């Protein structure tokens, strides 16, 4: 019998290891994006570099995406099952000015942009700032 976590990892061609299962489960139970530091806080005795490598593997396989929300710490959140982090998969993020938490607005795709000739679109970081429902 395989657990839900193993299935999610294998779906993205990631071999499930104990470390990967734990990091996935931490991200899965959060409703917000987490920084490397916040993930590290969930462990007693794990090297930051081990967590970082795990996150890198996840990101390379489109299991998670990273968000630069302007706070100085890159944050990570799970991707949808069919995400390949292409421009069409990108969505807007919301940073709460009060609690500092960053949320995925998965129903809000990044708007299409008509760039000047010769410029090609690869990625965008759209961060909306305001007050989240928990803080109002
Ligand atoms: Zn908030
Ligand atoms: Zn997101």
From TrEMBL:
Residues the entry annotates as binding Zn(2+): 96, 99, 132, 135
Co-factor: note: Binds 1 zinc ion per subunit.
Keywords attached to this entry: DNA-binding, Metal-binding, Repressor, Transcription, Transcription regulation, Zinc
Pfam families, A to Z: FUR (PF01475)
Listed cofactors: Zn(2+)
Family membership: Belongs to the Fur family.
Record's protein name: Zinc uptake regulation protein ZUR
Upper classification of the organism: Bacteria, Pseudomonadati, Bacteroidota, Bacteroidia, Marinilabiliales
């Amino acid at each position: 019998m395989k657990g839900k976590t193993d299935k999610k990892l294998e779906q993205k061609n990631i071999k499930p290891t104990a470390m990967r299962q734990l990091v996935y489960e931490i991200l899965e139970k959060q409703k917000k994006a987490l920084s490397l530091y916040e993930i590290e806080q969930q462990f007693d005795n794990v090297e930051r570099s081990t967590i970082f490598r795990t996150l890198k593997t996840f990101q390379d396989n489109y299991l998670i995406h990273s968000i630069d929300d302007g706070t100085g710490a890159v944050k990570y959140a799970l991707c949808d099952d069919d995400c390949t982090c292409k421009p069409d998969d990108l969505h807007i993020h919301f940073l709460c000015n009060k609690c500092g938490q960053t949320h995925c607005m998965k129903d809000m795709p990044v708007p299409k942009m008509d760039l000047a000739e010769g410029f090609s679109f690869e990625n965008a970081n759209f961060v909306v700032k305001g007050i989240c429902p928990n803080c109002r």
